[in-house]
Amino acid sequence: MAEITAAHQERIHWSGAASQAELDSWQTIAEGVARELAVDVLERDRANEDPHRELQLLRDSGLVNLLDPVEFGGGGAHWETAFLVIRTLARVDASVAQVLAYHFINKSNISFLLPRAEQAEWYRATIDGKWFWGDSVNPVDPNLELTVNADGWRLNGVKHFSTGASVGDRILISAAVTGGTRDGQLVLFVVNADAAGVEPLGDWDALGQRLSASGSVRYTDVRVTESDLLGELTDQPFANLITPGIQLAFANLYLGIAQGALEQARDLTRARRNAWFLSSADLYRNDPFVLRVFGEFVARVDAVEALADRAARRFDSVVALGDKLTFESRGAIEVEIAKVKIVSSEVGVEVTNRVFEATGSSSAKSSVGLDLFWRNIRTHSLHDPVDYKKLEVGAHFLNGEFQPISLYT
């Protein structure tokens, strides 16, 4: 990997902010995909199968290439738009929204790690092939090793929580190098999901996010060459924008889940006729206690949305700095996004849990499927402890401190 030089200053194709026309156009596309996903979302969740057909919908819609450069045939959209798309899909199918979110982040490493002159070949191939990018990057599971051999390296080991790896076209992988000139380096590289020695284990068995294809992958003597490398994992601020990026994607995932739960709960509530026998209301939806619960939830979810939208616009402005980005500026956006992560996690879990209080006992039927929202957010919100996001915000507020750069902070 080349060292950071002046050539890296022209690394990115994102600039400016998303126009309302851009946001509206891509949201319309996402809503169309969401309507198709909604038709059999419960059946697909219960089948617990990898989402091959669902990902084809994303390819056909153009969402798979939303963030890519226009000059190579990509959508040319901004990050604010990508986060809105994730939120829109999560209202219906959070598993598919998660796979797309990881895809956006994984593929963005082309721009975050490579000089502009080296990006064209990667972007042309991924756009023309409509590649989906899964990953095996879980930083708390450092069980992969790249060992030097005559024509490059051989990859061995098992990586857990490899989202999208079993359904994607390419897999972004992190592994430590043993031997040679890169001995001891932790590098990011890309392999073909169909390469010899790549074996998805099919062991994803979670309460929710069942179609996120997040099982383990075993790698056995998988061939890796210099041309597969994107770069070394360092503490260079711009190269590490993937962390605040994925955290904001998570926040929008949780926000979309909460919005979806409220939308279904509203329909269920309006369909009920009789109020509780002790109520003075004529209809169930006019009961003051029901109105109070919905009023509280709508206000809190809308507040999260406002905070998420603000963070998304600021993220685009930070990305546009390229290698001019400082540690302090990166830290500031990470803290900003940590705030959204905190409130989206807590509001989302509470809304998807307590919404049953407003919809009543009949909404707990398995055939209704209102539980899907709670199961999904309860599962994914455990990805990394929200308490440490609170610590991050508190340390900055009280002491002006930023957490060290990592794949979680």
UniProtKB/TrEMBL annotation:
A Pfam family assignment: Acyl-CoA_dh_N
Annotated EC: 1.14.14.21
GO-annotated biological processes: L-leucine catabolic process
Domain (Acyl-CoA oxidase/dehydrogenase middle) ranges: 147-222
Taxonomic superkingdom: Bacteria
Pathway info: Sulfur metabolism; dibenzothiophene degradation
Gene3D superfamilies the record matches: Acyl-CoA dehydrogenase/oxidase, N-terminal domain, Butyryl-CoA Dehydrogenase, subunit A, domain 2, Butyryl-CoA Dehydrogenase, subunit A, domain 3
Protein name (database record): Dibenzothiophene monooxygenase
Keywords from the UniProt entry: Flavoprotein, FMN, Monooxygenase, Nucleotide-binding, Oxidoreductase
Domain Acyl-CoA dehydrogenase C-terminal: 249-384
EC class (word): oxidoreductase
GO molecular function: 3-methylbutanoyl-CoA dehydrogenase activity; flavin adenine dinucleotide binding; monooxygenase activity
GO CC terms: cytoplasm
Protein family per UniProt: Belongs to the DszC flavin monooxygenase family.
Localization, UniProt: Cytoplasm
Protein biosynthesis listed as a keyword: no
Domain Acyl-CoA dehydrogenase/oxidase N-terminal: 27-103
InterPro entries linked: Acyl-CoA_DH_C, Acyl-CoA_Oxase/DH_mid-dom, Acyl-CoA_Oxase/DH_mid-dom_sf, AcylCo_DH-like_C, AcylCoA_DH/ox_N, AcylCoA_DH/ox_N_sf, AcylCoA_DH/oxidase_NM_dom_sf
Lineage of producing organism: Bacteria, Bacillati, Actinomycetota, Actinomycetes, Micrococcales
